[in-house]
Design goal:
The complex is a heterodimer of chains A (250) and B (329).
Chain A (H helix, E strand, L loop, with lengths): L1 E5 L2 E3 L21 E3 L1 H16 L4 E8 L3 H11 L3 E6 L7 H12 L6 E5 L10 H9 L3 E11 L2 E8 L2 E8 L2 E5 L11 H7 L4 E5 L7 E7 L8 E5 L4 H10 L5
Parallel strand pairs in A: 1-4, 1-6, 4-5, 5-11, 6-10, 7-10
Antiparallel strand pairs in A: 2-3, 7-8, 8-9
Helix pairs in contact in A: 2-5, 3-4
Chain B lengths: L2 E6 L1 E2 L2 E2 L1 H16 L5 E7 L7 H6 L4 E6 L8 H14 L2 E7 L2 H14 L3 E5 L1 E5 L2 E8 L4 E7 L4 E5 L14 E4 L12 E7 L12 E5 L9 H11 L2 E5 L1 H5 L20 E5 L5 H7 L4 E6 L6 H4 L2 E4 L2 H17 L2
Parallel strand pairs in B: 1-4, 1-6, 4-5, 5-12, 6-11, 7-11, 14-15, 14-16, 16-17, 17-18
Antiparallel strand pairs in B: 2-3, 8-9, 9-10
The chains are: A alpha/beta (250), B alpha/beta (329).
């Protein structure tokens, strides 16, 4: 099988973000970056299929400036075979522009399966996978939490609100990966060494003019400090009174 | 003046609450843009058409009803083609979807067919000149982005529970139509929709969410959480990532950065320390209550009301008190 996985470099979320002086981007000073978790699970899904299907090849693709090569190398160190950087000065917010640039590359690859994470936590929009699928005219299943591929056909499970869907699809197809599909393997030392020698092509992105643009970033209003009502079960009557008379939610 | 299309999410022959929120949001947007019409798109199996009058009550001028035996389950390709064809056929200013598993799947596909961008998880919207300007949380809700959508139609997926469905009766004309493609011809087929636990409320839609963390100590102890939810009668049960990773609850119950985003009227965190990954999924809740034995737990920094104590003592007492309070209504 020929499998492509599109990955994104994202900042660690466990920090207090600062808005840049331009008010439309974040101050990246001090931020730590790594591959998006959902994308790591997509890489893992591709590697599992490769393990089962001899002769498979996994290509990792990332759009962005040269620093995304680190993210591609991370996936290569997990076991992917080759990387492609779609070079752009910055990654726009507009998922359609990203999908355009990625699909231009993806359509030339003859892939049986194209995988994306379902969402990246930075832009939190979650649209690039299904948009690329439409641009490629391929069947698409989003946010899968299980996957079986056999005889050119796939079956996947999607988590809905309070329910699950079981979905069948033909290959080639585009899938986006949810949490719960797998646990991503850690790169071995051998994998890290091997990744340095794996091919990584650089191609120029063709990004259309964005139609969706960030005008302003701001930190949300802090929740006003709450209060400790009391200790133990003895505090319950007072809590219930506050929920009824003050918060008016009971 | 231009019209707004609202996609009404259904499951089986039921209209979901988010579907009515979508119609309400479309009504607000049409009114703000000078009084265009709201056209509601309602797809489903035979039996869905009777819901059209309800949708008219929430402000739809026209309900486009597409009843087909092949639409018992969500069909991404049929819904995409039908919505995209409709949007291409008229001068729509915007199309409103819901930020749900279905809406997240559908809105970007429709937008791509139209060659326009899309913003999901939208908290609010305004019209400013030629753009529709929306607020959308980024970086797991730690930053709020104000985003201008220049494209027409502007494709927007609203976060559930930020706009309450509001009655605003309009003519509600009904147009019966066919799906844009034959459901039998779709390549991707949902062969089954498995309902989780009989009729329980969904996390994204429930006015009250009660979530448990590691402090509950075992899967069996979630019975206490379920009992408290039952006492409320309008509550859904959620969990932290630690709990779903341990298999105490299904992944679909996880509230947080990699799981579900909820904004209920009341959020009760039980035995939850308040890791940043969890706060990302619930910090926009209107009122937050936390019960934790550690008075320094970070959850108390976002909670409106906290009780420091043992969840195994506090939950049964709270369940009893809520039952008592509800019985007086």
């Amino acid at each position: 099988m020929k499998i492509a996985v599109c990955v994104k470099r994202v900042p660690d979320m466990d920090v207090r973000f600062r808005i840049g002086t331009d008010n439309v981007s974040l101050d990246e000073g001090g931020l730590k970056f790594d591959i998006n978790d959902f994308d790591a699970w997509a890489v893992e899904a591709a590697l599992k299929l490769k393990d089962k299907n001899a002769g498979s090849e996994v290509t990792v693709i990332s759009l962005g400036p040269d620093v995304v090569q680190e993210t591609i190398r991370k996936a290569l160190s997990m076991g992917a075979d080759r990387g492609i950087q779609i070079k752009a000065d910055k990654v726009p917010f507009d998922g359609f522009a990203i999908a355009k640039a990625l699909s231009a590359e993806l359509k030339t690859g003859g892939y049986d399966l194209i995988l994306f994470g379902k969402l990246s936590p930075d832009s939190s929009n979650g649209v690039v996978g299904p948009m690329a699928a439409e641009l490629l005219g391929l069947p698409c299943v989003t946010a899968i939490s299980s996957l079986e591929i056999a005889n050119g056909k796939g079956t996947a499970k999607r988590e809905l609100e309070g329910a699950q869907e079981i979905v069948e699809f033909p290959l080639p197809a585009v899938l986006t990966v949810d949490e719960g599909l797998n646990a991503a393997r850690l790169p071995s030392l051998k994998g890290i060494m091997a990744a340095k020698k794996k091919p990584l092509e650089v191609k120029q992105a063709q990004l259309p003019e964005p139609q969706v643009t960030v005008r302003k970033l701001e930190l949300p209003a802090e929740r006003k400090a709450g209060r400790i009502v009391g200790e133990g079960a003895a505090a319950v009557p007072e809590l219930v009174r506050l929920l009824q008379t003050e918060a008016k939610v009971l | 003046m231009a019209n707004v299309l609202a996609f009404v999410e259904t499951r089986g022959t039921d209209v979901r609450k988010v579907g009515l929120e979508s119609v309400t949001a479309a009504r607000m947007l049409a009114d703000k843009s000078g009084g265009g019409e709201v056209h509601a798109l309602l797809l489903g199996p035979p039996g869905i058409a009777v819901k059209a009058s309800q949708i008219g009550q929430y402000g739809a001028d026209l309900i486009i009803v597409i009843e087909h035996a092949g639409l018992a389950n969500y069909s991404p390709e049929v819904a995409t083609a039908t919505a995209a064809d409709r949007l291409k056929s008229g001068s729509y200013r915007a199309a409103i979807f819901s930020t749900t598993a279905q809406g997240r799947d559908l809105a970007p596909r429709v937008a791509a067919r139209l060659g326009v961008g899309v913003v999901t998880d939208v908290l609010s919207f305004e019209i400013e000149g030629d753009s529709i300007v929306v607020r959308h949380p980024i970086n797991i809700g730690k930053v709020i982005a104000t985003i201008a959508i220049a494209a027409r139609p502007a494709v927007i997926a609203m976060r559930p529970n930020v706009i309450a469905p509001a009655q605003n009766a309009k003519a509600g004309r009904v147009e019966n139509a066919q799906p844009a493609i034959d459901p039998a011809s779709a390549r991707v087929k949902v062969i089954e929709t498995r309902q989780g636990g009989g009729g329980k409320l969904d996390l994204a839609e429930a006015p009250v969410v009660i979530a448990g963390g590691r402090g509950l100590k075992s899967a069996a102890n979630f019975k206490l959480v379920e009992d408290l939810a039952a006492a409320f009668g309008n509550a859904a049960v959620g969990a932290t990532r630690a709990v779903t990773d341990d298999g105490w609850r299904p992944h679909s119950d996880q509230i947080g950065q990699t799981g579900r985003l909820v904004s209920p009227q009341l959020y009760i965190a039980l035995g939850i320390s308040g890791a940043v990954q969890h706060l990302a999924g619930m910090r926009t809740s209107k009122t937050i209550v936390a019960v934790n034995k550690d008075k320094d737990a970070p959850i108390f920094k976002v909670a409106d009301y906290g009780i420091v104590g043992d969840v195994f003592e506090v939950i049964p007492a709270l369940t009893e008190a809520v039952r008592e309070a509800k019985s007086h209504h």
